[in-house]
Fold this protein.
Amino acid sequence: MVRKRRGTRAYLSAEDRRAEIVEAAFKCLQEFGYAKLTARKIAETSGISLGHITYNFKDMNEVLVETYRYASRTLYEATMENLGKAPETSMARLRAFLRAGFTPSILKKDYIRVRVDLWSAALSHEEISNTELVLYQRYREHLALILSTIAAERGRSVDEVPLLTDTIMATLDGLWLDWERRQSQEAVDNGLEGCIRLVEAVLPA
C-alpha cells in the first residue's frame, strides 16, 4: 500500500483507502463474525475513521462484497501458486488444484469462518450472492479446463466433465465446512483422494 504525504499529513489514495477498509473488515469478520459486523465496529477496531468508511463505500453491502472478493482472492492466488509449482502432467495439476484450497493458510479457523459467514450473507444479499457466483464460476472453469485436458489426453469424451466438475466442487465445499466443525486432516485427505479416484474411474487412462 503506497502512502503519500500532503504537507505534514500522511494520506492514502482512494484505491488504497478502500483496500485498507476491506482488510480491516476482513479482520473484524475473523474476530466478531458477520452478525456483529458494522461500519462503527470496523472503525473502532482498526483506527479508521467512520467518515472514511461512509465516504468510500455506499453501504455495508458494498464493504461485504469487496471483502468477499478479498477472501476469494486469497484462495485463487494459492491455487495459481500451487499450479505454477506442479509438474506438467494433467493429473499432477489436478492434485495441485485440489490441494491449494487446503493449505495451512487457507485452513486457519478464522479464514474458514469468514468464508462461511460470507456464504451465509450471500443468501440474503443479492450483491454478495452475485459476487459469489462470479468467483465460484471462475474457480469452476479452471477445474473444468484441467478435467477436459485429462479427458483429451486419455482419448475420453468431455461429456463427463460437467458431472465431474460439479461433484468435485460440491465435495470441496463440503470439506471446508467439515473442517470448520472437526479440523480433521484425515477427512480432508480422504475427500481429496476420493475426488482423484472418481476422475480415474470416469476418465480411465
